[in-house]
TrEMBL record:
SUPFAM superfamilies: Glyoxalase/Bleomycin resistance protein/Dihydroxybiphenyl dioxygenase (SSF54593). It comes from Gordonia soli NBRC 108243. It comes from the Bacteria. This is Glyoxalase/fosfomycin resistance/dioxygenase domain-containing protein. It holds the Pfam family Glyoxalase. InterPro entries: Glyas_Bleomycin-R_OHBP_Dase, Glyas_Fos-R_dOase_dom. Residues 10-124 form the Glyoxalase/fosfomycin resistance/dioxygenase domain.
Amino acid sequence: MSRMLFVNTTATDIPATRSFFSGLGFSFNDDFCDDTTLCLVVNDQSFVMIMTPEKFQGFISGGITDTSKEREVLIAISAESKDAVDTLVDTALATGGSTWQETQDHGWMYGRSFRDLDGHAWEVSWMDLSQFEG
């Protein structure tokens, strides 16, 4: 059975967040977007639902993580090559994102990361499993 994945998180400025992720090459399913919510498409089965804190609070109990101090999740996505990792992260940093973690280069796996406009951590990695020496 194939399952869909919906990661749910927050953004304080929906238009700025849409612009940021559009600049990284992501698209949105506008059927599920409005002034309080974005539906960022990762692929045809995976989405990131980005909501204002007020809207997000309606889906949870308890508080919302202060991303300047703690991580509530690490969102990891793949890239087609090391160059694609660098391009995506460099673009994120140039358009308002901030650095997070050092570059990881294990030969068969290469990754970099950034924090988005609201401090959520995103890891971008490339893997060549044929070189993996598990």
